[in-house]
Amino acid sequence: MTFAPEWLALRESADASARSTELVDVLRETLVNRNPLTIRDLGCGTGSMGRWLAGRLGGVQHWVLHDRDPRLLGLAEASMSELKDVTVETRQGDLTALTAADLAGADLVTCSALLDLLTPDEMNALAVACVEAHVPALFTLSVAGRIEFEPAEPLDAAFQDAFNAHQRRVVDGRKLLGPDAPAAAEEAFVAAGASVRTAESPWRMNSDALQREWLKGWVGAAVEQEPALAADASEYLRRRSEASAVVHHVDLLAIPRAV
C-alpha cells in the first residue's frame, strides 16, 4: 500500500502534535551513551518521523529509511539530509520480512502509522527481530479503532464498526491487524522479551482540512465494507465535517531486556 505525498504532508502537523514526548524522554535515557545513533525508520513515507524525532534525540545520527515507494524515499532523503548532524541512506523493498540480522548495528527501530498494515505473524516476527537484535523500538500512531465526535450521533458507531472491519480485511491473502495492532504489538514484544510502555497519541481536529480529507477516506472505507451505509454517507459526511473529532492512536516503546 502506498500513500500520496499530499496526504502525508497534510497529516504531518497533527502527527507531530499527537506523538508521545514522554516515551521519547524514556528512550533518550536508554540511548544516552550511544553516539552516533543508527536509526532504522520503517515505512518512512516522506520522512516525517525523522523530522520529528531527530532533534528530540540529539547528537549525531544516521537514518536508514525503508519504504516500498521510491518517490517517497526520494522526498524523505532530500528533507532528512538537510537536518543538522544527520546522514541518510535509503532502502526500497518489503518491510514485512526483516530479521535480527537485518537490524544488526541499529540503535533504534521506528515507524509511524504502520502496524495496522501488518498481519499477526508479521508483527510477531518484527518484535522477535528487534529483541534478538537488542534494538529498542518506538512505534507511533497505531490506530486504536476509536473515534469521538462532538456532538455525537447514533450513526457514529455503525460507521466506526464498518471502518474497523475494513481495516481488518484480507489483502492478497494477508489478514491485516487494523485496530488490533496496538494490543498485538504489546503482546508480541512482551512475549519476545521486552519491557513495553504505551501512551495515547490522539489527533484532535475541529472542522479543519485534515478532518475533511480524513473523513472522506474513513466514510468511504466504511461504505466499501458495509454498502448499506451508502444511503446515509453523503449527509453523514457533511455533518461530521462540521463536528470536532478525536481519532485515537497508541504509541509504543519496547526496550529489550538485554539493552
UniProtKB/TrEMBL annotation:
Offer an example of a GO molecular function term for this protein.
methyltransferase activity
What InterPro entries would the database entry show?
A: Methyltransf_25, SAM-dependent_MTases_sf
Ranges where the Methyltransferase domain occurs = 41-127
Q: Which GO terms describe its biological process?
A: methylation
Q: Which Gene3D superfamilies match?
A: Vaccinia Virus protein VP39
Q: List the keywords (alphabetical).
A: Methyltransferase, Transferase
Classification via CDD domains: AdoMet_MTases
Q: State the name under which the record lists this protein.
A: Class I SAM-dependent methyltransferase
Q: Which organism is it from?
A: Lentzea alba
Highest lineage ranks of the organism?
Answer: Bacteria, Bacillati, Actinomycetota, Actinomycetes, Pseudonocardiales
